[in-house]
UniProtKB/TrEMBL annotation:
Presence of keyword Signal: yes
Signal sequence, start to end: 1-24
Species of origin: Komagataeibacter diospyri
Top-rank taxon, per record: Bacteria
Name recorded for this polypeptide: Outer membrane protein
UniProt KW keywords: Signal
Signal listed as a keyword: yes
Length: 153
């Protein structure tokens, strides 16, 4: 019986990883802001992620940090990726807590796709390369914080 439960969790993780990658694969529009980010994630049931990145909005760049987590996650990875940021009328709206859906299936090298949205309606579709060993299919929360907001609109 326990074997079937673990198999079900692996199938769910695979589905969420595939769904996240499919959603994150859509190209950025010319009006979209973009992000580059790198992070580490570890998990033993509940996962925790921390990292940093850069938001590119027109000719302006804004460094940021990201922290948070979700469930189900097992293992540890380093990830680096790029994403499209949509519905960002003001740079300060980038700050906040994002609800995420996505997943990874990594053994040595892999990919991750994560779809996120915050309370301001800002959407991020992230596609990343991963290194390590992890299986995750997550619904979680990530907190993004701009380090400099001197160019806020």
């Amino acid at each position: 019986m326990n074997c079937f439960r673990h198999l079900g969790l692996l199938v769910l993780a695979g589905f969420l990883a595939g769904h996240g990658m499919a959603r994150a694969q859509a190209g950025c529009a010319d009006t979209d802001a973009r992000i580059d980010m790198s992070a580490h994630q570890v998990g033993a049931g509940i996962g925790y992620l921390w990292g940093k990145g850069t938001l590119y909005d027109g000719t302006h760049t804004y460094p940021f940090t990201v922290r948070g987590g979700g469930a189900f996650s097992l293992g540890g990875i380093a990830l680096s990726g790029q994403g499209c940021v949509r519905n960002l009328p003001r740079v300060r709206d980038f700050n906040g807590t994002y609800w995420t859906v996505g997943g990874t299936a990594t053994l040595h090298h892999g990919t991750a796709g994560v779809v996120m949205e915050n309370a301001h309606g800002v959407d991020i579709n992230l596609k990343a390369k991963t290194r390590g060993a992890q299986v995750s299919g997550q619904v979680g929360r990530l907190s993004f914080h701009l380090l400099e907001t001197t160019h806020s609109q």
